[in-house]
Every structure is written in structure tokens, then in C-alpha cells.
Design goal:
Blueprint (H helix, E strand, L loop, with lengths): L4 E2 L14 H13 L3 E7 L5 E8 L4 E6 L9 H18 L5 E7 L9 H8 L2 E6 L5 E3 L4
Parallel strand pairs: 4-5, 5-6
Antiparallel strand pairs: 1-2, 2-3, 3-4, 6-7
């Protein structure tokens, strides 16, 4: 297994603009869990880079965000599954990682139906739902 190295981000919030839904989601999760979370670039041994949308300072918690808004589209299910796949890989590839967390907007909850929710629970991916107003709640395991 390739091990990733955490890098210093060029700015504290990377691409998450002030007031953006993703930044508000990350702040709400951090408040809920009592931890500071920020985007973090990571590097593979071959020099390729990947960014996790949220990581705590100790590198134990990895977070991906699905902040789509508007009308639900079936393609959002693919985004959820891609982020779950990324979280599983990162949890194994980052030596300090212990927790994989996916935060979604209320709009995305239908994408977690059926086997997707079962897979997340079985694979140890924690799911939280952002209410749009600044708080997150844990999605019950399937």
C-alpha cells in the first residue's frame, strides 16, 4: 500500500471560499465533533497529489463533502460513491487515519438509499447530514 504524506496547504481553506456551502459543512462538522477540520493536500510517493476536503490536525479524521444544492439528480449517487471510495483509499493510505467521514446536504440523502447506506455502514464510513443552517446530524446506520 502506498503511503501518502500530508503537505502544508497554500492557504488555510484551500479552495473552500468564505461562505461556501462546503466550508460551512466542514465548520459545522468540526463544531459537532469538537475538532478543527481543514482541507489538506496529500502527496503520493511518485509525486502525484490528492486533496482531502477535511482533516484534523492529527490526521486521524478524513472528511469528504457532497454539497450539491438545487434539484436532485441521480448522478449525485455517483458522487457519493466516488467520495466513499476515495475515503476508503485515504483511510488506508494515510498512516495516522482512523475515521472516514462523509458529509452531505439534505438534498443528497436519497443517494444514500438501499445498498449504498449498507455499504457505508459495513465499511465504517460515518455519514452526517448538513441542514443548510449550520448544523450536522449523524445519519443512522443502515
Amino acid at each position: 500500500m502506498r503511503q501518502l504524506t500530508a503537505l502544508e496547504a497554500p492557504t488555510e481553506w484551500s479552495r473552500l471560499a468564505e461562505g461556501s456551502i462546503e466550508r460551512r459543512m466542514l465548520l459545522a462538522l468540526g463544531d459537532r465533533l469538537g475538532v478543527s477540520l481543514r482541507p489538506k493536500p496529500l502527496m503520493l510517493p511518485d509525486g502525484n497529489r490528492v486533496e482531502v476536503e477535511g482533516m484534523d490536525i492529527e490526521g486521524r479524521m478524513l472528511v469528504q463533502l457532497v454539497g450539491n444544492q438545487g434539484a436532485y439528480k441521480p448522478a449525485y449517487r455517483n458522487k457519493v460513491m466516488a467520495d466513499m471510495f476515495k475515503l476508503l483509499w485515504l483511510r488506508d493510505a494515510v498512516p495516522t487515519a482512523e475515521r472516514a467521514v462523509l458529509v452531505v446536504t439534505e438534498l443528497i440523502v436519497p443517494a444514500l438509499g438501499g445498498w449504498v447506506a449498507c455499504a457505508a455502514a459495513d465499511l465504517g464510513i460515518e455519514i452526517y447530514v448538513f441542514d443548510g443552517a449550520g448544523s450536522v446530524t449523524a445519519q443512522p446506520a443502515a
